[in-house]
Design goal:
109 residues; mainly alpha; elongated
């Protein structure tokens, strides 16, 4: 799984290097994630694959879908390409947001 995640990050970096995500690149990402289902169904692959499948299901990738996917991939790689050289973090892609749970009179760890 670690190698697949590293490959996904590398693929995302390569796709974003020209600051545009083409239909062919989105199709490639979809095929790669289908072929690497271990990463496609776990974080962060699932966060990327879901919008790809949604965009492709319409038969045409809308500019809104393209922009959303571009932003998601940027978060995966740590930000815009021009900022990566000075970046100290690996990713800005958030984990699932879990609602705050309170247990009255209890501590939860």
């Amino acid at each position: 799984m670690g190698r697949s995640l590293g490959a996904l990050v590398g693929i995302a970096q390569g796709r974003l290097c020209d600051n545009y995500l083409s239909d062919a690149e989105i199709g490639f990402l979809d095929r790669w994630l289908v072929e690497n289902d271990a990463i496609a169904y776990s974080w962060p692959g699932d966060v990327i694959h879901a919008p790809i499948k949604a965009a492709l299901s319409a038969g045409r990738v809308s500019e809104n879908d393209r922009a959303h996917l571009f932003q998601t991939l940027q978060q995966l790689i740590g930000g815009p390409a021009e900022e990566l050289g000075s970046s100290r973090h690996v990713t800005k892609l958030a984990f699932d947001e879990v609602p705050r749970m309170q247990f009255q009179g209890q501590s939860f760890v």
